[in-house]
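Supplementary notes for students who missed Thursday's class. We covered one full example, reproduced here. Read the sequence, then the structure, then the short commentary at the end.
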Amino acid sequence: MTIDAIHLREINLPLAHPFETSFGVTDARRILLVEIESEGLTAWGECVAGEHPYFSDETVDTAWGVMTGELVPSLLNAGEKLRGGGNCPHIFGQVRGHRMAKAAIENAVWDLESQRNGVSLGFLLGGVREVIPCGVSIGLQSSLPKLMEKIETELAAGYQRIKLKCKPGHDTKMFEAVRNRWPDITLSCDANSAYRMKDFDHIIEWDAFNLLMIEQPMWYDDFYFHSMLQKRLDTSICLDESIRNRRDALAAIDMESCRIINIKNGRVGGFSEAIAVHNVAAERGVPVWCGGMLETGIGRAHNIALSSLPNFTLPGDVSASKRYWSEDIIEPEVTVSSAGEIVVPQVAGMGFEVRRDRIEKLTVRRETMKARARELV
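Structure (token representation):
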């Protein structure tokens, strides 16, 4: 596989609506895009690192630095070592961490490989689903009436699972109000590591609300205390931030720290490790689902392909473009059916065309690197 050039771009894209979690409010995104040119083909990847090191220790700026300084040169000079996306973990192996930066480049290579082979990205990854079930993540709202209005809108749009962001002071009363209004909907919550051991008794009260899962209630790097909490809960704990790779998934399952795993492509370092986490969870009978990171259509297309693998049995956070962006950077934009499903593309590649004209308008920084030259624009 010969790489002719790799282009990095930072675009600035405002969200259609502010999104609030326990980390704070996001109303616009700085997004790092990767474009690979190879023998007449063009493939894309997206780095999901945020503006600040809150969800992860990576940021847009750390990713840019490690890509230009380490990862892109390694890929350009890989030679015969590069036969497809599955070789990227070995090529990048000398660099510790920086999983979101690695994922952006690796996933573009998988996209390129699927185009070269004339198969869909989902098929190349091992996907078997023609449609995927979709849930929705609702950020913290300023009032209960506003939250109820948001939920009503998403249910009317067909979403199969409602996930509520929560934090201390914004939890039990909210769950109670939602359950009183909608006793039978599939409901879950996501704490993004906002709680501590002193909150155990409080969290255990949530068993009364028949939640599908409680996502990442404790520390982002913890298995032990999650295991303690899970033993006292009837409700399943789902781990997100704690699962960085296959080994983490094995440890969490064996320690009974969770009964469900959220797989985020960027968080685990790309498709290769995401598939490995998926497989070990399937072997142990633990269901998985695909989490979202406020991606543009490029990252969203990759999540759709990943979600077509067989053990993605729970509705993920892969929702419609219009929920996040007034205008996306792909066409057609991602849409969700009235049954709460997304059709998995069956054409070669990721199945969506990238709107280069829109990306050019949104670009605030770029850099092009070739095997023997480096061009700053």
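Commentary. The CA atoms of residues 33 and 74 lie 18 Å apart. The two ends are 26 Å apart (CA to CA). If anything here is unclear, bring it to office hours.
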